[in-house]
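Blinded run. Sample ID left blank on purpose so nobody reads anything into the name before looking at the predicted structure. Input follows.
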Amino acid sequence: MNVMSGTYYWPATFPDPPSYPQLEGDLECDVLIVGGGSSSSQCAYYLADSGLKVVVIEKGKIGGGSTSSNTALIQYSGEKMFTNLANSFGKKYITRHLTLLQEAINHIEAAASATEIDCEFTRRDSLYSASCSEDVDTLRKEYEFLKEQGMNVDFLSKEEIEQKYPFSREAAIYSYGDGELNPFKFTHALMDHAARKGIKVFENTEMNGHHHDPKTNRIIVSTKNGHSISAGKVIFAAGYEGIDLKKEKLVSFVSTYTVTSKAVNDLSSWYNRTLLWETARPYIYLRTTADNRIIVGGLDDNTNKPSDRDSKLIHKRDKLVDEFNKMFPEIQFEPEYYLAAFYGGTADGLPIIGMYDEYPNSYFLLAFGDNGTVYSQMLAKIIADDIVKGSSPDLELYLQNRPHAGKN
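Blinded prediction complete.
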């Protein structure tokens, strides 16, 4: 899959990351993780102390896929509001989902602290604003739901927003304790941590076939360089490219765009350097970085053709810069990196752990949606628990055939 194009900021922040050898022989393992991005590294992190023999294979370089285009706003709220999710799945179901998302953010922070590489994790508050007056009532209901669940949130009026920011919105939910990080460094940090614990990592090792051996109940994976890996369990954590292996009817793709500025001298007009996003569809979102750059993304486009996506890059870049300038006229925004990428979402608003009859002993980690890093952390832990402990009480919440529960 042609996932993205353009220029990439995150790899430039870590030009000499750890590297790993190519697989040069046949192997046996308890768990094979296919993929070398964020989802893969999060699985490896959770399995690092399991006592199991774990192998990771990546067809290119670690972090070289969509991880490099991930903007890594670490939030529990997503594009589909929890009030809407509760209508689809039931209040009890979504209350548990919300709890797991909060735990995942805490686990991301703990993982970032436990590794040798600085992931630039920082707690940030979020402002989720109403893009028009018609969205205020819906936003207030979302706030009331979050407040009922014990979330640390405020509901800001137009006047309160104007007191804090140089722009105006009709209303907003102000959430405390979200975060941001460098996804490229985070992926390398977790993979490095896992490798130090004994997990075998191989780069430039592409899978080109696999089958289930019913006699041994093991999965046999073959690689393009002529070797085979026999595994008890396989986790397919290849991001969007996993869809090339197994089509999932709940998943669809659009195109999204991102522009990163040069370093900015003065961010004092940006209250608390808050993560910013809005109710409009398509929407834009904003964050800052550890070296005082600004990332603006969004303006999604309903095309899944790489040529169409890429042809709009310069126009979308300029539009994103214009939108930023309307919000922060005092900040000088000079674009340095900009990209176009596919963005995967799910029809019902929840990420997916795919477990299919035609792929025995296998998990597909499909952390699709606007909170991909948080979803990946959550799903990686559930899968690791299911492998190590034999079960996870939360697995059924995210299976591809999860029921749409009645309201409760």
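Unblinding after everyone has recorded impressions. The chain has twelve helices and 18 strands.
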